[in-house]
Design goal:
heterodimer; A: 834 residues; alpha/beta; FAD/NAD(P)-binding domain; 26 helices; globular; B: Rieske Iron-sulfur Protein; 4-stranded antiparallel β-sheet; 3-stranded antiparallel β-sheet; 10 strands
Amino acid sequence: MPTSHKILILGNGMASAKLLELLAEQPPQQPHEIQVIGAEPKVAYDRVHLSELFSGKTEEDLTIHSLGWYQKNKVSLHLNDAATSLDRESKQVTTASGKTFGYDQLVFATGSAPFVPPTPGLSGPAVFTYRDLVDVNAIKSYGATKMTAAVIGGGLLGLEAAKALQGLGLKSTVIEMAPRLMPRQLDDEGAGFLKDEIEALGINVKTSCRTQKVESLDSEELRFHFDGGETLDVDMIVVSCGIKPSDPVARSAGLTMATRGGIEVNHRMQTSDPDIFAIGEVASFQGFIQGLVAPAYQMARAAHGALTGGSANYEHPFSATKLKLLGVEVSSIGDSLGEQTETRSITLSNFAKGHYKKLLIDKATKKLVGALLVGDSTQFSKLKQLAELGQPLPDDPASLLVPVEESQQGTSLSFLPKSTIICNCENVTKGDLIEAITAHGITEISELKRITKAGTGCGGCVPMMVDLLSEQLEAQGIEQKTDLCEHFTYPRTELFSLIKQHHLTDYAQVLKQFGRGQGCEICKPTIANILASAWNLPVLNQQQIQDTNDAFLANIQNNGSYSVIPRMPGGEVTATQLAVIARVAEEFRLYVKLTGGERIALFGVHLNDLPKIWAILIDAGFESGHAYGKSLRTVKSCVGSTWCHLGVGDSLDMAITLEHRYKGLRGPHKIKGAASGCMRECAEAQSKDFGVIATERGWNLFVAGNGGIKPQHGQLLAQDITKEEVLSYIDRFLIYYFRTADRLTRTSTWISQLEGGINHLKDVVIHDTLGIAAELEEEMGRLIKGYHCEWKLALDTPETLNSFKTFLNSEETDRTIKFEPERGQIRPATLSQP
Amino acid sequence: MNVWKKAIKTDQLKPGNRGCVKFGDTQIGLFHFEDDRWYAVQNRCPHKGQNVISRGIIGDAAQEPVVACALHKNKFSLVSGKCLTAELPALVTYPVKIEGDDVLISLT
């Protein structure tokens, strides 16, 4: 039997994972075995999105391929071990654990290590780097009890680290030696815009700031001593000053190294030893190390070609990055600093919107060589195209910087040639995407991602994919209608204004004037919802158009029974009320559980028992919790300064005020709020549709956060404002949302679709640029006045109670709904089909 | 042969509304359209087997009278009982007639 060909890969990061994936898809011809040695204890993960571990993602979410995948593809994986020496004579690698591995072909994919400057005192238990899962876990556990932090380095990774620290509730300062943030990508003015936006989020930025030494104080704090004598005390430090390639093993083995570090490779990723290759951040091609994922994947492709007899060659990709840093869009395209040729520039600097855009045009050829976009990356793909292909510019290139009119949106991709790479990470062209859309009949973005893999790397191209998909569907005649349904040719937003304008209060009128047919399960609840948002009239007046939960003022459960959730503002409940709940639960044999919104839910209620139970609860002073509607649920709260020794504001009072103010409101989707008494944020206000956090000077107001399918942090709307301002800003925000959101759209999705995003919202809510602030508040005032407890009203209106009978022709309860015991309570019986 | 059973009085279910009636162990969803058409189908949704069809929203889909199940919004024709949104068994449909102020359903 011929001995099999041994491929040994050192490193199990993103480049390594990509190479393995390619080898699995297209293996070498001859019998072979693949071994991987990885220094980290975990199998390869998506390092690009490391900061998402601070916002709810798990390590599993970031894992690129499961261990099962490695097994299935016969990759033998040796983790938590690193190569320490290489003997090219005997073709053997020795690892830290003393094992030896032979190879026929060797690939270095060892990546890089963080560079820590030799500043005196910059070490110890409170100093961290930001590179891998071990770092993240260490920062998380150390930072959990700390208050302040500094990040050394204001580049991309440093800002990511600052975001992560902010996520931990630490007040952070970014320290950059250069006169501006992101000095490699941005010019002074662009960086200034970014600095403003970042500081508005509560992160301090210090530029032109050189650290002389770091002093450890007795208090466990660290004190920075800067040039010029200034000092800064922090609890912890994260160092993000760039990378150094992990190349010592290659160096000791005598491979040719690049002048500025890294293993020198040719465009097949071959090192000075023809049997040894290098990819990713350890490889230096034409004297440059690439730190982004797209070039690393391209290198993996070239190396895969070399290992399997393919012909792929590596070239440094045209550099164009589109990022969202701390919510601020930042793009740089090509020679964005105009360093390579003599250039002239066109600049659009819009302080009011926080937009900064700059075109760099070659003085001689009049072609675009680079561009910078801060605050708004709408024109990214067009500018990238012009610069990359050297296409001629329009007569007035400044027109390229003006936002595309709404009516022309989505056309930005049509002029791109099919060969344009849309996804740099996975190397997918516009042509590939179009082919996949047509061949597989794709209509959903998730399908397009699954089939083409585009958008699964850094994710930066997803917005372009969405545009492309809708263009294609439109071209195929699959019209993406904004019609609500077959009965109404209007989107929700237009129906909302029509209903308001014409003072319509019932569905039949709306259908008669603006619709056709008998209606359906889409338009009936949507219009019911608009009517509720517009007039706050009793929903049971038109029970037949309500979604099932609104129709019965309770949440239907999987077995057809219902839940009952009374309102408990601030999570407060008296002992007497608890006793009433206990009595109801016992009498009706219900399952009792605390909800995530700090209240008590009773499950397993038969339809015809709902009025009986609510009569008892209302008698005890409870109100409907509206847990069943597209309505305000709860305003979660910590105990704040009332009880907590760390609290700086009365979050209980705030939460209870807010909940009473907005209870009973219905909107396009459910609405959740929270109030925290200090920046430790125990009430998780930054994950709510509206959330306030007490500061020493008042309240910070965040909006448009949510948990759910795609968790989103709230965005800062206003800082250090008074309680009165909190109320009027939330009034304005909510009504503006009610008016302009599509059906079933949470505030986070709404704001991401809102042109101008949070800045536009600030304009409307705070600066009143549309001149409607007073009107919005008045409207909210009317809705608040119209509040009624729906269950109290239902009980007071006996004819509505007929609809709560399980059977129109019998007083019986539905005996097919059965329960079985579990953990001392009931649960729905496992269904046996009748 | 149709065996007509008296279900309810016409004024127990206002136009646009839906409800449930039972005969022995048989649960039937009863639907009263705005234009005074009446329909009756089995109350059990074939999707997960719960008796909730009668709590769904009614309307029309391309002129076909339909009900959308209260749990997962699967849409069924009230004429043929066929599911229009998923591959599910059709609902049993029952003839309905009005005599005076009585709503009658045929159970055969």
